[in-house]
Amino acid sequence: MTDTKKIKKILRLLNRVYGKPERFKSEAPMDVLIRTILSQNTSDTNSDKAFAVLKANFKSWDALLKSNTKMISRLIRSAGLSNIKAKRLKDALSEIRRREGRIGLSRLKNFEIDVSLNYLRSLNGVGPKTAACVLLFGFGMPVMPVDTHIFRVTKRLGLIEKDIKVEEAHNVLSRKVPADLIYDFHLGIIEHGRRTCRAQNPRCGICVLYGLCMFKKKEYYRKKGEKS
């Protein structure tokens, strides 16, 4: 089975179990950037709370840039690593304004994907996942953000090599997953990683992808689930 056929089959099975992922309205690219920086090393619940607090306290990202770093840190405490993230936010906003003459990323839609990724990754605190999220959710570009769930699940499914690094996984999966399926595949795999293909004690006994999975311990966890 080719990778493309396997990916399409995986997505069909995931949609059958979890439903087809909801298509959200594209966010403003700057909002995606801020939200994703806040999401680093924390849960969506915590980062969403911090993002909402920023939105409530600042009428624009220009206003945030003018604010005191310590104040920003206090406001985003729920996201964790608040001192680091506050500095990253201000550094990114300052650099974008320096390059663009304003705080905005609309010019990236005119670039090739690799150019846009390099632009974003040159900003302090912006790694491959954050950059990919901005392009996928802010511009609708076919780029695969790879978080811990996607990295783990796609390894177990044999879509990426077991010794591959996260940074390379972004490039490999962006090439392998058909452009029109990236959005749904990204959300579907994350859902599966959270609910079934967990890092600890994966629920292999009820996994709809069991027959496609190459995880060496899947039979062990299937039997363990039957006994529990």
Structural class: mainly alpha
The CATH architecture term of the largest domain is Orthogonal Bundle
Write down the overall geometry: globular
What are the low-pLDDT stretches, counting only 5+ consecutive residues below 50?
none
> Cα-atom Rg, whole angstroms?
19 Å
* CATH class categorisation of the largest domain: Mainly Alpha
Give the tally of β-strands. Answer: 0
Named CATH topology of the largest domain = Endonuclease III, domain 1
CATH H-tier superfamily of the largest domain: Hypothetical protein, domain 2
Strand content: under 5%
Mean pLDDT: 94
Biggest sheet, open or closed, and with what strands and sense? none
Query: How many domains comprise the coordinates?
Result: 2
Secondary structure: helix percent: 55-70%
**Helical element count?**
12
Order of helices and strands: HHHHHHHHHHHH
* Terminal Cα span: 34 Å
Word description of this protein:
The chain has 228 residues and is mainly alpha-helical. It is built from twelve helices and no strands. It folds into two domains: 3-21 and 145-227, Helix-hairpin-Helix base-excision DNA repair enzymes (C-terminal) (Endonuclease Iii, domain 2); 29-139, Hypothetical protein, domain 2 (Endonuclease III, domain 1), CATH 1.10.340. It is globular, with a radius of gyration of 19 Å. The two termini are 34 Å apart. The mean pLDDT is 94.
